[in-house]
Prior knowledge:
The protein contains eight helices and five strands. The protein has helices at about 1-40, 40-50, 75-90, 110-120, 135-145, 165-170, 185-190, 195-215; strands spanning about 60-65, 95-100, 125-130, 155-160, 180. The protein has a five-stranded parallel beta sheet, sandwiched between helices. Helix 3 crosses helix 4 (about 110-120) and helix 5 (about 135-145) packs across helix 6. The termini are far apart.
Amino acid sequence: MGHSNQKLPKRSRWFRFVLRPAAFFCMGLGALFVVVTVTPLAFWWATALAGPWEDPSGDVLIVLGGSIQDYGMVGGSSHWRTVYALQAWKEGGFREIVLTGGGPENHSVAAAMRDFLVCQGVPREAIRLETRANSTRENALYTKELLSDVPGRKVLLTSDYHMFRAHSAFKKVGLEILPRPYPDVRKRVTRWIGCWPAFLDLVTETAKIVYYFARGWI
């Protein structure tokens, strides 16, 4: 009987410090899964980060590079930014496209995006490249330098969830632009399988916004 009484406190501690927290964690994770996949949380979040949803025209279209794959191939985010840049070009009005984004070794994402646009009929001479930037802040700094003597109305194109930080970073360095977000997260969350990747992108982007605020970059 005494031996049994000695084991009871250990079981109680196991339940209190291991099983109960694990159960609460699983319940919380399950609730989060339901919220992310069933509610329009990610859609609303991306819409808030995108800001005013307009398609302004202008003279210079600035397109931010995103992911890049091996051998200089564009990644998913870069591909869709290029597709929407092509759509904006075909609508008419822009006289020039600026592609900004570096990459590993000699494979810049900006160059890969240019190759795509040229294959789709955009004149090579209408495209300027900025190939040094490896962050949104550098996109802003180096693009301002590139366009220091270029007049005209400038429009910034990037993913919906990225627009707040990008727009703010460009304003911070003194380059006035009009935002032209495209539906990235807002499109992905229309299918439940895309909800979690989109949600994680939103969490990561929000952390980057906090970091940029802390550094005084936005």
